[in-house]
Amino acid sequence: SYKARCTRKLESGLRIANQNSNSSNELQTRHPPRKAVNDNTTTDNRNAPSYLAHYGMHRAPFAERLTEDMYFSTPTHTQRLDILLHLTQYSDELLLVVGNDGIGKTTILNQFVSRATPTWKICQISAHPLIDEEQLALRISHGFNLPVEVDDLESMYHSLKRYLDGLLTTTQTVVLLIDNAHQLGQACLRRIMEIS
Length: 196
What we know:
Layout: H1 2-20, H2 24-30, H3 51-54, H4 75-90, H5 105-114, E1 120-126, H6 133-143, H7 153-168, E2 173-179, H8 186-195
Parallel strand pairs: 1-2
Helix pairs in contact: 6-7
């Protein structure tokens, strides 16, 4: 796997660096064992990969799940995130972020939420192919902390639309974020257009 190849490369680089160094023990005294910062690492350096101390890392860089402090932004990413934030605040357009699997769309979405202003009312949901119109309405209602009226589907969407229209008369910016929206069916996409 990619993670294993990168780990081997780092460990290989460490072995070469240690061979070129006159005192490999000096490395270990300059970088004392560190405790883990989160659950993506081991609790001490005895079980940690050997390259961590060499590169001054406090946890493995190829963790199964990313944490907020592991986000790396290039100038291009920062510019695109700033554009999304600006367009969200100052336009009424439907914004769409597209890209191949694993490119970082969800990571950008999480950064977007972390940089939102306090005047934004955000509902963030994750889509999958099995979500139907009723489940979508329930998720959006829960995301906006609305009481759910399950009389019938039409009244649920009517209540959602009335609530969202009411928010638009205030100073709040209403944001509906749907991760993996491409997995929604046509009926769900139509409902999103109706309430937007």
